[in-house]
Design a protein that fits this description.
GO biological process, one term: ganglioside catabolic process
EC number: 3.2.1.18
Distance between the termini: 57 Å
Shape: elongated
Mean pLDDT: 89
Enzyme class: hydrolase
Strand content: 35-45%
Number of domains: 2
Largest sheet: 9 strands, antiparallel
CATH class of the largest domain: Mainly Beta
CATH architecture of the largest domain: 6 Propeller
Structural class: mainly beta
Number of strands: 48
InterPro entries: Sialidase, Sialidase_fam, Sialidase_sf
CATH topology of the largest domain: Neuraminidase
Low-confidence stretches: 1-55
GO molecular function: exo-alpha-sialidase activity
Helix content: under 10%
């Protein structure tokens, strides 16, 4: 090993003498310089206040639990906690045979090599794509702080595949001021003595062994697990690998942000065995259900019902056991293949959720049960509708439903969801032959005033471009269809009853204009509806928010709430991924929907430059105390991660 300066030797002895020293940081090589120049950028001396005599203090701060109990284990002893850790892979939305980028083994998550270091043609790379290595990530689902007075610590045990012609990195942040990334990584152009580098908000610095810093091969052996630690405290960054200090510097003050650290294998391939994170100021999103829970690859399409006494029932689709690679990909966005209807209960208004998940329909059948939707009668009976529907995978990632295969079922509970009736078929009443019927995504309502008191309404989307409602005047014993709401490309209807007895329906649509949500009214209990018109009530949808599901719900004080996306995005870190809604906003109205006022974003936590909140299908209920509980497809990086809860 290279001869170190006196200060480095002192520091190493201090650090390695302390127990529990092994921390890794997750690094995503996001900067334009790294992506476009393949790490061959110029390595120059670090500017400003980072002189050598300031770079290495005699001691380094470590205000964290050395037993690693105070923080969160994202992955421990090879077992990932999918509520806390996210693996992104090139094959997530690409059916590369039956091979996946990440696979779980007894000792942890293994990533297959994507890049051939000696290719003759592009076919030698995984999937025939020379850039397939770029779409693999390991993300913390916890946001940790970087800024004045903030601290966080991260530990990981990983195995690096090779040094030959490779590079990998740990992404630590993204500055508000420069809009650039904070990355610590390794250059792999030398298989003999690869070096570390730092990309600090757009300034790239080589970690020079001539200054006494170790080379990568001095602290990491390919194929052997390495313990990596990263500490940021009081404006100082340092990282250790297998107990050896690899770099430290004190960075300038800037506006505090919260980031989800990530390991990016880049041209390398890694196995992840353990991952731990700690801060006294970190947070994550509030999952009610999440991916891979109880064996379900994806849990999507939430529906809510009140069971009284502050109890909520959450229903969703649980998708699992894909039979082909194409079906595996399709299950990210469609209820294809083996899909069950699930239920989970909250007894405290959605603050916490019971561990138990009950399967309402589909268990062990291998069939596709989907589109859960609820309505509750005035007497407290809960009615649940769902469908069995098959389809065909088109190409790599599209799915075409077979309307002729659809069966719509109804089950009922009179004891708050503790037991359910046998399913009965209501298909003939709700399928009109013009396309498959999608219940929801919002729950139905029971009318309370005038001639139509007690009538049940369930909004439906027919095919991909028509909206109507299902009606029942006998508490669900029989159903019939309303007239179709006049309008082009209408989808995702939600209905509330206004104080004057009229019904208000808000929908999305799949047209390029108008770039707003649509509204329709009924004065006959939902039998017929006015032509849908663009709503003129200060509801911001951005350019594309109208394309995605929203919701409309009313509280006991007649306040109407609505939520809609304000944009769309395709994850730039995911190959072939879907486009989804982003940055949902909550609005309220106290004048029967004539005007709406913006309440604010659903996701109110501070994040980092460029972060967007993913959103998908959603539902909501207003509790007796006025608390608005919203459940929606969501997560840290994409709506496919599960069902997220917001309480307002």
């Amino acid at each position: 090993m290279r001869k170190m300066t006196a200060k480095i030797r002192v520091l190493r002895s201090l650090v390695t003498a302390a127990p529990g020293t092994a921390r890794l940081l997750a690094g995503a090589l996001l900067s334009v310089a790294l992506l476009t120049s393949c790490y061959e950028e110029e390595h120059f001396d670090f500017p400003g206040p980072f002189e050598i005599d300031q770079r290495i203090p005699d001691t380094l701060p470590f205000p964290f639990d050395e037993t690693r109990q105070a923080g969160e284990w994202l992955m421990k002893e090879g077992v990932p906690d999918y509520r806390k850790i996210l693996f992104k892979g090139y094959t997530d939305y690409y059916p590369a045979g039956d091979t996946t980028s990440w696979s779980l083994f007894p000792d942890g998550m293994h990533m297959i090599p994507h890049r051939n270091y000696y290719p003759i043609t592009d076919d030698d790379h995984f999937g025939g794509n020379p850039n397939s290595y770029q779409d693999n990530w390991v993300y913390s689902k916890y946001f940790v702080p970087i800024g004045p007075g903030k601290s966080f610590y991260m530990y990981a045990k990983i195995t690096v595949g090779t040094f030959s012609g490779t590079a990998m990195g740990l992404a630590l942040g993204r500055s508000w001021e420069t809009k650039e990334n904070f990355v610590f990584g390794m250059d792999g152009f030398s298989s003999i003595a690869p070096t570390f580098f730092l990309d600090f908000y757009g300034t790239t610095v080589g970690v020079d062994p001539n200054d006494g810093w170790p080379t990568v091969n001095e602290v990491i052996v390919p194929g052997i697990p390495a313990e990596v630690e990263v500490v940021i405290h009081d404006g100082r960054f340092y990282t250790l690998i297998n107990g050896t200090l690899c770099f430290t510097f004190k960075f300038p003050q800037g506006q505090t942000y919260y980031y989800t650290p990530a390991i990016r294998p880049w041209r390398n391939f890694v196995n992840v065995h353990d991952m731990y994170i700690e801060s006294n100021d970190m947070y994550t999103v509030d999952y009610a259900m999440h991916e891979h829970e109880q064996g379900y690859t994806r849990i999507q399409t939430p529906a809510l019902a009140s069971a009284g006494d502050n109890q909520l029932l959450l229903f969703a689709e649980g998708r699992s056991n894909p039979r082909t690679a194409e079906e595996r990909v399709v299950q990210n966005t469609y209820p294809a293949g083996d899909c069950d209807i699930l239920m989970r209960r909250s007894t405290d208004g959605g603050v916490t959720w019971e561990d138990q998940i009950t399967v309402i329909a589909g268990q062990g059948s291998g069939e596709s049960y989907c589109f859960p939707q609820t309505v509750s009668t005035a007497g407290g009976k809960i009615i649940l509708h769902y469908s069995a529907l098959s389809g065909t995978v088109i190409g790599d990632d599209e799915y075409e439903y077979d309307p002729a295969s659809q069966e719509i079922y109804q089950v009922e509970s009179t004891d708050g969801g503790n037991s359910w009736s046998a399913p009965k078929t209501i298909t003939s009443a709700l399928v009109d032959g013009t396309g498959y019927v999608r219940n929801g995504p919002s729950h139905g309502i029971a009318l309370t005033s005038g001639t139509y008191a007690g009538r049940l309404l369930m909004p439906l989307t027919v095919g991909d471009d028509a909206v109507r409602v299902a009606l029942s005047d006998d508490e669900g014993a029989s159903w019939r269809l309303s007239q179709v709401v006049e309008g082009d490309g209408l989808q995702y209807g939600s209905v509330v009853e206004l104080e004057d007895g009229r019904l208000m329906m808000m929908t999305g649509h799949n047209n390029s204009s108008p770039r707003s949500r649509m509204v329709s009214y009924s004065s006959d209990g939902g039998e017929s509806w006015s032509p849908a018109e663009a709503i003129d009530a200060d509801l911001e949808t951005g350019s594309f928010g109208h394309l995605y599901p929203g919701l409309l719900v009313k509280g006991s004080d007649q306040t109407i709430y609505t939520v809609n996306a304000t944009g769309r995005q395709k994850d730039g870190e995911t190959y072939n991924g879907p486009t989804y809604g982003i940055n949902p906003l909550l609005f309220s109205s106290t004048d029967a929907g004539v005007t709406f006022q913006q309440v604010g974003p659903l996701f109110e936590k501070p994040a980092y430059e460029g972060y967007v909140t993913p959103t998908g299908f959603m539902d909501a209920i207003v509790l007796g105390d006025g608390t608005l509980v919203i459940v929606g497809e969501g997560g840290v990086e994409s709506p496919q991660e599960g069902v997220v809860v917001y309480r307002k």
